[in-house]
Amino acid sequence: MRRKICETQRAAFQRGAYGCFQMQTSNANEIGLIARILAGEKELFHELIRPYERMVYLTLFSMVRNETDAEDGAQEAVINAYRHLASFRGDAKFSTWLTTIAINEGRKRLRKAKNSAEESIDEEAEAHEGDYTPAPLTDWREIPLEALERKELREALRVAVVELPDIYRQVFTLRDLEELNVEETAQALGINPGAVKVRLHRARMMLQKRLVPFLKTTAPARKRFFGRAL
Amino acid sequence: MKLDCKHVWEHISEYIDGSVDADLRKEIELHLEHCEICSAILDSTRNILILTADDRTFELPVGYSERLHERLAKELGSAEKDSKNE
């Protein structure tokens, strides 16, 4: 269990040189795969899409907030990606291109569900100067990693993310769940990188405030080591 | 320049992402050394992100992958037929 968290920590926070090398290798592999698929080896599309199944589903879920609809949408997005693969130019990463297709599918579904008011609500939310300060923890004790294993904490986080306003939930999903970088997130959502940073900060602060009651623990205080690597 | 707590909060997200410049990072770290409140906010925010990145927090529906590839196989199969009929 603890190891699992360590792995995700690494994935989330330690995007070092090796990760960069791996990314370049996987990009090169993908470009090769795409060329073969377009040349007729269609079955390879299964292999191309497999690493991104989760990402496509979560993107859809962050928009439609319903499991069945998210799954249907994910299937549609993947089929669309296959049908339009020839239009992938390689100037963006395949993952970003695929995310854009998933987002378009999500928007289509929201429109169909007569939720087209979403965009105007979003603009209002963006302009609104809300309170995005975190919640201070006055009786804070450092949380042992074991405490993060609690199921109720996970459940509380799921609910809190689902209940974030749309524009914050989408950026949070792409950045912190799918681990796209700022530029990729901006490109996928069609917004500027500054807006990505602002929305991400607000989303994180809203979640921190919401989850503080669950993050308190009775663990004994111990001396902190500030600035430690995660 | 000495940072106050509010200033630190404004930069917490970028600090976590490692995208603040070196001078500001140093200022924030100096502040964190003596401010328990900001340290707690930083830790709690980081813990939320660790939990978010854990695959068990946001799970996929059971059988999602199988159904996806089944649907895809049908699509690839029908594309195959179309190309043969042409």
Report what the structure shows.
- The complex is a heterodimer of chains A (230) and B (86).
- With 230 residues, chain A is mainly α.
- Helix content of chain A is 67%, strand content 0%.
- Chain A has a domain at 117-217: Winged helix-like DNA-binding domain superfamily/Winged helix DNA-binding domain (Arc Repressor Mutant, subunit A), CATH 1.10.10.10.
- Chain A has helices at 2-13, 17-38, 44-49, 53-64, 67-83, 94-112, 118-127, 151-162, 166-177, 182-189, 193-215.
- In chain A, α5 (67-83) packs across α6, α6 runs parallel beside α10 and α8 (151-162) packs antiparallel against α11 (193-215).
- The longest helix of chain A is centred in the C-terminal third of the chain and has 23 residues, at 193-215.
- The two termini of chain A are 16 Å apart.
- Chain B has helices spanning 5-17, 22-34, 36-53, 64-85.
- Chain B contains 4 helices and no strands.
- Chain B has one domain (5-85).
- At the A-B interface, α1, α3, α4, α5 and α8 of A face α1, α2, α3 and α4 of B.
Biggest beta sheet attributes of chain B: none
**Into which percent range does the helicity of residues of chain A fall?**
55-70%
β-strand percent of chain B reads under 5%
CATH names the topology of the domain at 117-217 in chain A as: Arc Repressor Mutant, subunit A
**Can you give the mean pLDDT of chain B?**
88
State the secondary-structure class of chain A.
mainly alpha
Oligomer: heterodimer
Query: Uncertain regions of chain B: pLDDT < 50 for 5+ in a row?
Result: none
- How many individual β-strands of chain A? 0
Average pLDDT figure of chain A:
79
